[in-house]
Design a protein that fits this description.
Elements lengths: L2 E5 L5 H15 L6 H7 L8 H4 L3 E6 L2 E9 L26 E8 L8 H15 L4 E7 L3 H6 L3 E7 L9 E8 L1
Length: 177
């Protein structure tokens, strides 16, 4: 098994979106009700600002897209282009703000094989190189076990805005780098 990585480009968007849809549908089902899984599609997703900022990575195993995720120096904590979450493009100050870990997804065919940890290491290393000393994220329930294993601590439990009357549980987490 050979893990490789690279910065994602706009050409990768169709494959990334397909991976995200599969990950939401398959990996969230042990943590959310079926209605919450459907609603989570409107909460999660890729913010293409990460692609434009060149802070979004993808990991492949033997040439197959196995996972993806990013970090950001912008204020937006979570949410994709099509999500109901407002995005905040303001640039963060590494001296006082935490970098954001964003839009982490693993291909269900490669879950629990080190893909998420590899993406996290790459994001944390890049944030550290940019001068950040802390990171924060809005975690899905399916991601919480990985993030705890990577040293993230809970900050605040959050419920999404209602989507067709359904709220999705999330957990804001943080870590000192």
């Amino acid at each position: 098994m050979s893990l490789t990585h690279r910065i994602a480009t706009e050409d990768d968007l169709p494959a990334l979106r397909a991976l995200m849809a599969r990950a939401i549908d398959h990996l969230q089902k042990d943590f959310l009700t079926p209605e919450q899984v459907v609603a989570s599609r409107h909460v999660m997703g890729l913010d293409t600002q990460l692609i434009r900022d060149r802070t979004y990575v993808l990991v492949e195993i033997d040439g197959v897209l196995a996972g993806c995720g990013g970090w950001s120096y912008r204020a937006t904590l979570y949410g994709g282009d099509a999500s109901v979450v407002a995005r905040e493009p303001e640039v963060l100050d590494p001296a006082k703000d935490a970098a954001r870990i964003r839009a982490m997804y693993t291909n269900p065919d490669f879950a629990r094989r080190g893909v998420g940890r590899r993406v996290m290491d790459l994001c944390e290393d890049a944030a550290r190189a940019a001068g950040f000393t802390r990171t924060e994220m809005m975690a899905t329930m399916a991601g919480v076990p990985l993030y705890r294993a990577c040293g993230y601590e809970p900050i605040e439990e959050v419920l999404s805005a209602p989507i067709d009357g359904v709220r999705v549980p999330l957990l804001r987490m943080g870590k000192a780098l």
